[in-house]
Model the fold of this input.
Amino acid sequence: MAEGCAVDCFKEEFKRYKKRGADLSNVIDFSSLPSTHSPEVELVPVSQLPDSKSSYSEQARCLGLKPPENWLLYKVVAVPGLLVVPNPFATGGQHGWVRRCLVDYPCRPNACNLDAHSERSGDGRLWPSHTTASGDGLATQSGVPGEGGGQKAHANKRLKLSKDDLLHRLRWVTLGYHYDWTNKVYSSQNRSPFPTDLAELSSFLLAVIGFPRFCAEAAIINYYHLDSTLSGHTDHSEMDLSRPLLSLSFGQSAIFLIGGKTKQTRPKALLLQSGDVVVMSAESRLAYHGVPRILPPSSDNPVPHELSLHALRQPIREQDASDSTEVVCHCCMCGRDKTDQSAVVPHRGDGTTRGCPSCQELAASWQEFMDYLSVSRINVNARQVVSEKHGFEDT
Ligand code: OGA
Ligand code: MN
Done:
């Protein structure tokens, strides 16, 4: 069990890890496991897959995930119920989710921190649009759309964020039941539709991890800068605390601290990297947790390689066959709808393809996403709010 202490051990560790030169040697790094054996974590088998493996693999592919039999699932010994799947996303599988978090989810009717001062206009779109004059005060230059978004096309289209830009000031978005931060409650009156793709991703991840009936009804999306922190807290406003919390990380890495049901438990430090999935279940569901530090990128890799333009194009390349005139685009944004023929794309004859239209479009503007991600972390925190036994009192 984690060590207890009379003082606020959580705060102590938080302060220690918040510092720039902090010693990170005790931080659990799942990406260097299992080669480095750690007594802190245990590998557990992914749950028995009820359906045939192939239908699971197909669903996983459509969600941008690797086949579940290739995922690793760890439990953190000192924090009962805390589960981590280090990056289960396929190559090119994170890009579409990043786009959803930056372009679509911040739009109305979803709520965000900028609403307090009525700062969003129209549909609330914050991400710069190059087809219209760039609104919302974003300093961007329109580039010439080129050959399927080659390097040249976006080289002169860079996202330059100033501190006054709305996108820079975006800190959180809520989906589904919107959390009331002041009164720390959800209500049936304050709700918008939960995105079906994110609900599907959440249910799928949790079903494989061993929670088959999870239904995501609310999510908080946190947007972190390199100097952002999230102080120690518990999430206890949901009705059915037997349902786990699900967290997804994209962009720069973070130090995540998680302890016990009081701040007297000394927390464990985890390194969360782009694509990592964390599940807080059982005892850890109500454990104190927080983010003392976002780690800056290395100078030679402004964004993790999973989020590079190369990674976005790879799923198409993998499918290339020199003897065929058509190839199937396997990016995470097409093929969700099985009738969508856009997944089948023409072969250019030079050994390359342009991918499906959504993939091409994203590739053409991916540099801007990389510019944002080079200084940011995105955390999607999904919850089931309503208990199957009793709903809201006001309904
Ligand atoms: C939260 C939360 C953790 C993270 O949004 O409640 O705990 O990893 N986020 O950002
Ligand atoms: Mn939390």
In short: Residues 220, 222, 230, 235, 247, 256, 272, 289, 291, 379, 381 surround N-oxalylglycine (ligand 1) (CB under 6 Å). Helices lie at 9-18, 53-62, 95-104, 151-155, 166-169, 196-209, 309-319, 357-373. The radius of gyration is 21 Å.
